[in-house]
Amino acid sequence: MSPRAVVPLALVALLAVGAPAAAAPVVVALGDSLTAGLGVAADEAWPARLEARLRREGYPHRVVNAGVSGDTSAGALRRLDWALRSQPEIVIVALGANDGLRGLPVGALAENLERIVERLRAAGVRVLLAGMRMPPNYGDAYTRAFAQAYAAVARRTGVPLVPFLLDGVAADPALNQADGIHPNAAGHQAIADRLWPHLRPLLRQAPASRAGR
After folding, report:
1. Which of 9, 49, 158, 176 would bridge with 192, disulfide CB 3.0–4.6 Å?
2. For the domain that residue 135 is a member of, what is the CATH number?
3. What rounded mean pLDDT belongs to the chain?
4. How far is CA 157 from the centre of its chain?
């Protein structure tokens, strides 16, 4: 076989190997450091744990971790086109922690989230919105308005809502790193477990174990 023939055949082989992954339905996790998995291994962050759960349940989906540490709702809105490049079927929107920690206006957060959801829906994407809450030291009025913003966005856009991404994880030393903010590996597993019942109804493709029945 000539050297010239080897290159095309190798390219065909690479394409053949990559084809199944490329064809798999995509779930994008759009978030900040809580999604990116700051301080834990890539395969320990909740998007990877969700992908592992999908595989165990027989679903072919892959989960793209689009978490960026330090990102705000405004930053995520600006990079939304990048997130859409993978042509996701579902996007989990898990934003707002940095908006709150910086004391940014709740109205701006709600507007950004609504614009993100509407742009995703316009692209034919199914959306799961995950809420965030602020600690009580930010004041009762701000923390209450902050939490209510997610419910209002979900109501106006008609998307399902997970009221609090860190439900059962926040303030638990056993599930967080030393900073008390970012989940450890066990915390990320807990997040994935809590998201699963909300994600599953959005999966249109039946798991492989049930296909053809």
Report:
1. 49
2. 3.40.50.1110
3. 90
4. 18
